[in-house]
Amino acid sequence: MSNQTLLDHTTNATKQADTRAEDLAEIIRAYNDVTDKVAESHARLESEVTRLRRELASTNAQLQRSRRLSALGEMAAGIAHEIRNPLGGIALYAQMALDDLKAESALDNVENAQTHLTHIADAVRSLDGIVNDVLQFSRDIQPRKDWLDVQALFEQAVSAHRPEIASAGVRVELDCAAPCDGMVHADIGLLHQAILNLVRNATEAMSRQEGERRLILKARTVGGDDRLTIRDTGPGIDRELVDRIFNPFFTTRHTGTGLGLAIVHRIVDAHGGSITVHNDNGAVFTCTIPRPNQAAQGLGAKAA
């Protein structure tokens, strides 16, 4: 190969190398441009996500505040409605008692005045019950759970309403047979209150109608849940009212605050459970209380 040919080859190789170097530099510049744009786009996206999160948090806070205000408004309206009736009665009977005592024959009217004062005392007790229900419904519920004897819970709730149950001629049946180990994992005070409210509602419902009056309290363990069922043979619940039955201050009775079932719902919900109602020759309320897996397994091992 001549020197000229070698020189030409060298020159061509150098040009090709320079071209490749320029191409590589262009690729690197393009890569850097793309990388910069991606980084810039990523930064913009992060900023946008942060902004949207702040807006979402603000919107959620406003929504929660709106819901709280709405609930507070409904509660205030319900409380005002419930309190107005006994307050009106107190004012009326107080005036009647004063009129009797101011009359010329006041001594002859003492008995009437005593009757009016008795009505006032009854109205005050009604107000006290309303306040207690409102306080119980509005308080923060923090269950202190332990393993409880279901049979004992049922018996205590029935015993607390024994006079009303006897007066209404209600026959009570307790059913804690298998599949149920007789235990439920819950707060004893809260669950007692929930069962108490359900027993009272069932007894009052049956007392208003003729025919057989039976109250059945049943416990079953299904999977990892305990199901406590309170069944009565009363008139049941109108289908149109089922979706509203657990709303605060909703009631179909002439007396009561309408907070009893709302309190039951809150108690069961605080235990991570649920409560349902349906009609089957009367009203059937079912409280589902979840069991902690490890505790349930340990309890089962002890029973074995």
From TrEMBL:
Record field: catalytic activity: ATP + protein L-histidine = ADP + protein N-phospho-L-histidine
CDD domains xrefs: HisKA
Taxonomic superkingdom: Bacteria
EC assignment: 2.7.13.3
Coiled coil: 42-69
Keywords: ATP-binding, Coiled coil, Kinase, Nucleotide-binding, Phosphoprotein, Transferase, Two-component regulatory system
A Pfam family it matches: HATPase_c
SUPFAM superfamilies (alphabetical): ATPase domain of HSP90 chaperone/DNA topoisomerase II/histidine kinase, Homodimeric domain of signal transducing histidine kinase
Histidine kinase domain ranges (all copies): 78-293
Molecular functions (GO terms): ATP binding; phosphorelay sensor kinase activity
Tagged with keyword Nucleotidyltransferase: no
InterPro entries membership: HATPase_C_sf, HATPase_dom, His_kinase_dom, HisK_dim/P_dom, HisK_dim/P_sf, Sig_transdc_His_kin-like_C
Protein name: histidine kinase
Organism, scientific name: Mucisphaera calidilacus
